[in-house]
Design brief:
mainly alpha; globular; 2 domains; single chain; 68% helix; 408 residues; 4% strand; Zincin-like; four-stranded mixed β-sheet
Length: 408
Amino acid sequence: MDRGHLRWGAAIVAAVVVAEMAVVLLRPRSGVIEPAVVRTESYFSASEIQRARDYRRPQVLLYGGVLVAELGVLALLIARPPRRLKGPFRRPMLAGAAAGAALSIAVSVSILPLQVVSRERARDAGLVTQSWSGYARDKGVSWGIGAVFAGLGAGAAVGLIRRYPRGWWMPASAIVATFGVLSVYAGPVVLDPLFNTFKALPAGQTRDDVLELARRAGVDVGEVYSIDASRRTTTANAYVTGLGTTKRVVLYDTLLENFERDEVRLVVAHELAHVHYRDVPYGLLYLAIVAPFGLFAVAQLTRRLAPADGEPGPAVLPALALSLALMTTTITTISNQHSRAIEARADSYSLTLTDQPEPFISFEQRIARRNLSDPDPPGWQRFLLSTHPPTIERIGIGVAYQRGERGR
């Protein structure tokens, strides 16, 4: 058998094994309530279930189409590389940066039709409120940011590959881990405000609830913000982000305006759980563990796919981008296992902190209806795509707590 096949095949297997081992190493070992077995039909009507599935299942197919289109464009560029990528170049890194930015824009344009179809379906379902001009503005900003990052990454990659033809993945791993830390730290104050307006929660009952729950959780919550999500969507959500001085809990205005106080308290408690258990730093630790093995596999795949003639330059970028896309998708599927586990722990923590299982269950029902979420998606879809437990399992956690089954 060709040694090249063995080398890149073994590298991919090693990356997958290490990613799975990191999930096992970092998985929650306590504080997770085992969900009770409950029937979906006991909490959602047949019409609600069907409406959610009629919306979500085509959206999943469109997401798959986007992924196939991205990979297809990169594969086409490998099979028929543009002449401009071949050089020669007086400044290969600068040429690589320009090629990386152009490649980012080309891929973004190729998937835009499918994204527009997906957005139009969301508009028809009542989930999107933003105008097409606002959507175009957001796309322009995100494409610009993506092109800048892709250009910087491509220029650095060309420089590293030329300097360390076989070992470039090692310094690249350090760069990826560092970028992960910087993006988590700076993203909330540099990038996020480009898309939304953030307002510190004003003095009042909700802010008092947040501070009281944070005190009981024993965490420094940083700041709590609301964002104007309603100008884009009717869906409700919340998240925790940032690191150190940029750490914050962010609540959608659609959540604050459309849900009861007890339900909002449960959402806040859920987000405080992520702070309590340091889920963001542990996520960065996962990245630091997995990045070297993932990038080693990327290096082996790139060597297999890239043109072999001449000194490495911008012509290597389509192969590098395709290898990155394949490995990122694979490792993300594995890391989703960890994400689902920590989200289940956060649900469990929110129940123990508030001791309100009935509002917890009603919230899961209401938010699933509002967001048109499939309460019980197929197993393959959960495994490949879900970052959170399905709604019916989350309801099962509330039912188990209600019955006095307080966790493992």
